[in-house]
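--- STAGE predict ---
source: upstream dedup step, 1 unique chain passed
mode: sequence only
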Amino acid sequence: MEQPALLRLTGIETGYGAVSVLKGIDLEVRSGEIVALLGANGSGKSTTINVISGVIPLWAGRVEYDGRRVDGLHPSAIVKLRLVQCPEGRQLFPGLTVLENLRLGSYSRSLSAAQMQTEIEHVYQLFPVLLERWRQLAGTLSGGQQQMLAIGRALMAQPTLLIMDEPSLGLAPLLVGQLFDLIEQINRTGTTILLVEQNAAASLKIAHRAYVLESGRIALSGAASDLLNDARVREVYLGV
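--- STAGE serialize ---
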């Protein structure tokens, strides 16, 4: 039985100044899915997820999450609804320790000291290297470790839906494989994921469904396995 939409975008139009970027986006993410959002640089991927997170206002359309309309809400209010974005470029606090960065991830929740410790230990189970380096400044971690910390910090907000923006950017190929395994693991524990990635092949292998953006419009959508075998996707995004 098909799950209801946890997130639904309808007729989304927006841009910057007088420049139109999104031109009528319709998209949905169902509970329990991994949905990949693919597209070249400048196609509108980051604009789409920043609309969802309340960072960019709409010109037209609506964003519905968990049965309610959320466009127009402040980004902090959206995080409190457990719709959380792990941003491109990690955006950690480099002068704070690993532990301090994790604690900041739970700012939207009122946790007791015991609850905070339980949540942090859950992150350490996913990313044991963060436990080894809990006192280390975030800015001194390797790129892969910083990405783990960014994801761990996002998980501290206990997202029902986690938006991941280019998580594999700048990582060595071996780490990319490990990262996608972890994304699947996070999804199996009950977190719905909207994955924005330029690594189309890896994304389509773990996603349930996918959308392809071109010039601010949805060019293709469907089951990820179908898109992985689609001649146009293989030529343009997979280099086959």
